[in-house]
Amino acid sequence: MSGYRIELDGSFKERNGQQFMGGRGLYNDAYTDIHRIEPHGFMSNPVKGAKALLLSPNGDPDQAYLLGGEHPSHRPAGLPGGATAIYDSSGSIIKLVNSEAIFDFQSKTATFTAGTWTINGDVTINGNVTVNGNLNASGSITDGDGDGGA
Predict the structure, then answer these.
(1) H or E, element range at 93
(2) Which of the chain's ends, N or C, has fewer CB atoms near its CB within 10 Å?
(3) Which CATH number goes with the domain that contains 49?
């Protein structure tokens, strides 16, 4: 079996529930329509310039497979051991770190823990809200129909 690191060219096709990509190898060798293996329950489309491992069972490039597909400049850094991140090329990220789930989309974040939840940014709720406990407001409360809350 042989393996090579390749740089993906950003092309991809979906066929019969599988993904096929292209890229260039160490000596500018071109690869097209290579089956990319993805784990169950996860789907992604690596961007142009992402790095992947091309494996060729029995050294036959016609039977090659791609593993990975991560772009070095988009990969988040600084997460502790055991953490998990799902991210895109725009900087949006969902992090699972210890007992927290942190959603960060264009610097608007929501942090969910086993105890207190903090949401930063404007929030719109379409539907009813039930509060079981105290409601504290540090700003104004505006009544949408103008009857003063009656």
Answers:
(1) strand 93-97
(2) C
(3) 2.40.50
d(CA 87, CA 99): 19
Same domain assignment for residues 54 and 93:
no
First to last CA, the chain: 75
Query: For 58, which DSSP code?
Result: G
Q: Is residue 32 part of a domain?
A: yes
pTM of this prediction?
0.73
pLDDT along the chain (150 residues), means of 10: 91 94 92 92 93 90 89 92 93 93 90 85 88 88 72
Q: How far apart are CA 13 and CA 36, in angstroms?
A: 10
Half-sphere exposure of 98 (CA within 13 A, CB side): 5
Total structural domains within the chain: 2
**What is the b/e burial string over 2-36, where b = at least 16 CB atoms within 10 angstroms of the residue's CB?**
eebebbbbeebeeeeeebbbbbeeeeeeebeebeb
